[in-house]
Amino acid sequence: MLVAMTACDEAPTSPTGGDLTGRWQLVSLQPMSGGTITPRPGTTVGVEFIGADRIAVQSDCNSCAGGYTLSGSSFRLLPLACTLRACVSESIERPYLELLATASSATILRDGGLRLEGPNGVMTFTR
């Protein structure tokens, strides 16, 4: 019985407002087109949820700010204002921002990570 209760406690969950607050570093992108993309060593790629409705986004060459909505596991990114610095050819900025813009669900994972998922793919983050 104890094993069953523990397993239930560790199941992925829908985040609540406070669960997302803070910085999350991107671990990987998995576009629907296939493959897995990871950030280049030495780059900063992630998000920071500020309160219940603001977000700061860092790609490896630009930063963005805007809003988001969260209702249960339903996630929606609102339009972002971004810097416009040129990126190196190995940058993952384009697929990262495209997946983030189309993310429609947020899940807190068993290991404490965050998964944002949408029709274009899946992103996994860690604190």
Walkthrough of the structure:
- The chain has 127 residues and is an alpha+beta fold.
- It has a single domain (2-126), classed as Lipocalin.
- An eight-stranded antiparallel sheet has the order 5-4-3-2-1-8-7-6.
- Helix content is 17%, strand content 42%.
Secondary-structure map with pairings?
Layout: H1 2-9, H2 17-20, E1 22-31, E2 46-50, E3 54-58, E4 63-71, E5 74-82, H3 93-102, E6 105-108, E7 114-118, E8 121-126
Antiparallel strand pairs: 1-2, 1-8, 2-3, 3-4, 4-5, 6-7, 7-8
**CATH hierarchy: architecture:** Beta Barrel
Range of strand content: 35-45%
Instruction: Round the mean pLDDT to the nearest integer and report it.
Output: 89
Helix percentage range: 10-25%
Read across the widest sheet, the strand sequence of neighbours is 5-4-3-2-1-8-7-6
Compute the gyration radius: what is it?
15 Å
Task: Tell me the number of structural domains.
Answer: 1
